[in-house]
Please model this.
Amino acid sequence: MSIVSQLNNSVAVNVDSGGPIRVMLVDDSAVIRGMLHRWISADPECQIVASYHNGAQAVQHVKSSGAEIVILDIEMPEMDGLTALPLIIKEVPGIQVLMASTLTRRNADISIRALSMGAVDYLPKPESARSGTATADFQRELLLKVKSLGAAMRKGKRGGAQIPVWPAGGAPRAEVKMGTHAKEIILRSHSKTKPDILAIGSSTGGPQALFALLGGLKKEITVPVVITQHMPPTFTAILAEHIRNSTGIPAREAAHGDPLRNGEILVAPGNYHMTIVRKGADRVVHLDQNAQVNYCRPAVDPMFESIAAIYGAGALGVILTGMGHDGRDGSRKLVEAGGSVIAQDEKSSVVWGMPGAVAEAGLCSAVVPLSEMAMLLTRYLKGVAA
Model:
């Protein structure tokens, strides 16, 4: 079996019958455009509808192309990606834009700025099209993001029935119709113990959600906060800087051995799992490069599992928007230890993979829109019954 076939089999996504997801490529490198074109075209659920070498061409033709997803390079002649981004979104509101860049500090900073301007995600480009593990990982990530974003966008346009959310042992919160394939979500009782730590996991759409959530909390954060966001090296340091600058909360990329401090945010560094361990009377960060979990490093599951073991009922976990199911197994450990987990709801998520997996597994004490999450977390952190 070819590597393309293997990768296509490993990134199955339930795309509806509206035909292949329509993708536009915008990159000044003919080599990169050709590589992406081959990979995406090889998947029967995707279709390249246009390919351009600068942002000006993309803006001019995006509406007529019918593209649903745009893969947009940052550095291009005539009009770069950051300039083209808002113009593309203005031409086609609701279009999903993936920023593509090489792994430099400057490009990481621009990519995260682009996320705050309406881009939904980013792709760190490989340095070449040569075969190898890094290229295969990039190919898998590319197809997964394109198909997941396309499927989520189409589902959002169609609307559909809400998923019922029931308190454990109680009646429905509201009278809602259950869709054909929807699962009931049964809520657990939240922990009666005041949280000693706030642990957050996120992926696609996560940076925007983190800025909104943490900006809403600000002075209410009186415990250590640890974050695992699926991001490559360099990006995670820039993410921590943007969190600090946008919220005023002390935040930085975690280093091995860092002690956890109340009111401080530590972000797992790209390519390292972050767990919490005991060191004497302190609780400190442990970083490792063990095997990927759920195709990710850093991954949410190891962080949540370590927090469950140390904090028990004092652990409070949050799962924000993201693809896949990372965080589900760790959330199970966390609630089994007596802690609580809150998930972002489907409507406010870019992709309801991670929060949906945790919610549908019956592991949440609440499933709420992002706009309501800071208020709810404030009650939890103050020890007030929600």
Summary: The longest helix spans residues 133-158.
